[in-house]
Amino acid sequence: QVQLVESGGGSVQAGGSLRLSCAASSYTYTYCMGWFRQAPGKEREGVAYVDSVGATTYADSVKGRFTISQDNAKNTLYLQMDNLNSEDTAMYYCAAAGPKCGVVGPGTDFRYWGQGTQVTVSS
Questions:
Q1: Helix (H, G, I), strand (E, B), or coil: what is residue 82?
Q2: What pLDDT score does 52 carry?
Q3: Which residues pair with 22 in a beta bridge?
Q4: Cα–Cα distances in Å, from 16 out to 5, 36, 92, 93?
Q5: What is the CA radius of gyration of the chain?
Q6: 84 vs 103: CA distance, rounded Å
Q7: Contacts of 65 (CB under 8 A, 6+ apart)
Q8: Which pLDDT value is given to residue 99?
Q9: Could you state, in chain order, the average pLDDT of each consecutive group of 10 residues for the chain (123 residues)?
Q10: What is the 3-state secondary structure (H, E, C) of 15-79?
């Protein structure tokens, strides 16, 4: 079992940046790792995935603005978020699934989840 703990959320003005971190209790390089978000009144949506060989995929809404990466030596997943806008306001979660990532989606096939970190973008 993998335990995940997110950090790095906060409040930022539109156009600003934040970097989220997700610390894992054990190695995650054999998993598909993903970032998800859920805004009030909306369904959870996938933001970005990185698979066991380092290939990344992104939701269209964040392409060119967000970057997912991982440091296997530290068992830590990151999400660099640049040029934030109000529509990025949400609770952000990291999660782990099997070794292969599918299409970025709501993450119903992800097995392990963190508790989330809040991101608030003001205009």
A1: coil
A2: 86
A3: 6, 77
A4: 23, 19, 17, 20
A5: 13
A6: 23
A7: 81, 82, 83, 84
A8: 77
A9: 96 98 89 96 97 93 97 94 98 91 91 97 95
A10: CCCEEEEEEECCCCCCCCEEEEEECCCCCCEEEEEECCCCCEEECCCCCCCEEEEEECCCCEEEE
- Distance, in Å, from the CA atom of 37 to the CA atom of 122, rounded to the nearest integer, reads 17
CA pair distance 95, 44, nearest whole angstrom? 12
- Rounded to whole angstroms, the Cα distance separating 8 from 11 reads 10
pLDDT at 57: 96
And the tokens for 80?
Answer: 């660099």
Q: Determine the pLDDT at residue 102.
A: 86
Measured CA to CA, the distance from residue 103 to residue 35 in angstroms comes to 13
